[in-house]
Here is the input.
Amino acid sequence: MVSIGSSMMDNHVVDQKIMDAFANLAGSYGYKGTTTRKIAQQAGVNESTIFRHFSGKQGILKALIERYQDEINKAELSFHTTGNVEMDIRHAISIYQYFIEQHKSIFLIALRESSQFPELGQAIQRLLLIQKEMLLKLFRNLIEQGHLSAQNNLEMEISNLVLMNFSQAVLKLAYPNTSIVISDQDYLDKNIQNFVSNLKK
Amino acid sequence: MVSIGSSMMDNHVVDQKIMDAFANLAGSYGYKGTTTRKIAQQAGVNESTIFRHFSGKQGILKALIERYQDEINKAELSFHTTGNVEMDIRHAISIYQYFIEQHKSIFLIALRESSQFPELGQAIQRLLLIQKEMLLKLFRNLIEQGHLSAQNNLEMEISNLVLMNFSQAVLKLAYPNTSIVISDQDYLDKNIQNFVSNLKK
Amino acid sequence: MVSIGSSMMDNHVVDQKIMDAFANLAGSYGYKGTTTRKIAQQAGVNESTIFRHFSGKQGILKALIERYQDEINKAELSFHTTGNVEMDIRHAISIYQYFIEQHKSIFLIALRESSQFPELGQAIQRLLLIQKEMLLKLFRNLIEQGHLSAQNNLEMEISNLVLMNFSQAVLKLAYPNTSIVISDQDYLDKNIQNFVSNLKK
Amino acid sequence: MVSIGSSMMDNHVVDQKIMDAFANLAGSYGYKGTTTRKIAQQAGVNESTIFRHFSGKQGILKALIERYQDEINKAELSFHTTGNVEMDIRHAISIYQYFIEQHKSIFLIALRESSQFPELGQAIQRLLLIQKEMLLKLFRNLIEQGHLSAQNNLEMEISNLVLMNFSQAVLKLAYPNTSIVISDQDYLDKNIQNFVSNLKK
DNA sequence: GATGAATGAGCGTTCATTCAT
DNA sequence: TATGAATGAACGCTCATTCAT
Here is the structure.
């Protein structure tokens, strides 16, 4: 039986601590406002350790982006249809609500810093495209199986749904106390019914 | 006819040059990435002039926010209905598309820095609320005048429309080359027809 | 009868206002801590006016020093003996106590900035020397007139008296609440009697 | 035997170099005239090193004051009487002459900047009080042991002695070439004899 | 490999002074 | 002559990163 060397193990743990500290801080204070000193402090490591584990501040972000992309891919896989129209749509959307909630720091970073770091913009766009494709696939399934009638504007309706979800996420994270934003739960409850009934007309 | 004293005029001009330089730079590099040296260079003034005209870097942003809020108010007033349903909605939305296009820098700044500067978050929210109220008033007019039948979910439909417009704006400005975003023109063409036809059903 | 041109008059007034503002501020905040802006503000003049009336910040100090030296000279003249030993000494010393009290700002400036501005050191020293000479003359008078017997150590006793007066002034101005310093009145009352009785032994 | 870790040693050495550079410069140019760039240059360290070792420019002064106060305390302990009246007084005074000579920079700083930094005023006052108490104790000893007869005005005589010493120190440091100031040696020689003979009368 | 000391570039800001009207 | 706008040098300080042990 092989025992994994503890140092390699520790390395991973330290990497994660640094990345998480960075994500939390940058989510609150922005990339520039997140100093290596604060990261080290919050991660509980020496400041120079950051530079051996990553190539520098940018390196942490790069690693964070990669981890994010991996997790976007994983999220994609976790969806399966049931045939219940409302439940399936609800499920499809809440997967992304939950995903963004779980990754709110990096989502906020991506929103803010994408002009400096194009990969961040690409990650956001990928998140939207995957959501759109998933919904498209779902609706086509539902139509194929007769749960829904064919639509003229299906792609546009879905694009709009994705856009609305995006706004909902952005506004909730960026301005948590605003009046125009309602809870994700309410958002789902009120909209999906309406959306489906529109499609059914 | 009174000729305006040139010195007072110059003062305004320099203020504007500094504010515009700041807005452009901060739109690209963020608040922290926009140094007073860069601002001075881009505005073509001495760095210390900035500090005589504004109380500091924050002061420029404050002034920019105030100017933005004033212009939000002006935009609100510039709308009048005609009775042609599609044209009126189109007009109402394009006013905000145009407004954001004209103020893209400050809109981007607001999107990114609102956690550091709460006024920015408030400005964004106000822009959304005004848009929503304007559309509500418009639709109520159209219904009253018989151009449109009464709606169960009017407020929600309008909220969604505002959210979609917001996403459209955010994505267009933040990721201009993305595939999910279409031109404002196309967005209007395709959506309004659909939206109206939904309402008419 | 000649009427003095008001502009020349004003010039003098402005000069004085600037010098006084400078003296007050520098007495509190030191030379470097006294900015031309603060001076202008306190004097109620435009900042650039300072540079036309004086050659710059140093120029104000130079003028202040000259005024101070003139006033030291005037103070010297105002003393006359009466023959009453204690009263005369008391009078001689209180002239300087009063003088320093009246010029406390410039005295403090001189104390602090003399390494940067040698004239200030010279002014302080002159104040001490004049005081010493005045006391020497007084004592020689008193001895000559038989009010006091000849002394071995007259010059040293007087030097010491001057030094004590100087300490008293420095400590009173620099640390007004200190316990080692007593009021000028008490200082006079207690010391002179003692000093004279020592001389009389 | 334990060898002290060199890094801890180095740290102290750098601290001292910075503090000494600061003291020298501030003794000559005042607190404001002593820039962190000059300090770094004179101490032979990088400017930012100053900020890692101290919390800022004020921090250096604070540390200097603490070191000064510690050394005042040490000086206090180093005095013991012998019974020889003149020698003991001479010794008591020269301890302070020497102390001030050794700490002339911080003494000058204290004299000049005490209005901005109250601790400096307190340090000066403490130096005076300790000196006074030491002399009081000494004289009471001498009287008790019959070397000196009881005095009416002992406390005042001693206060005066302390004030004279203070002036002597201030003038010597601030205006080294002035005529009213004599060497510490001469000052001692001439005064103590006189002072003692006054007391003995 | 891990630490903590050092570094230099750059930051926002203030200042005394000059310029232009 | 008087004003207020402009200037450039310098300031205290922070930062990401490198060096030395």
Observations:
- Chains A and C do not touch (no CB pair under 8 Å).
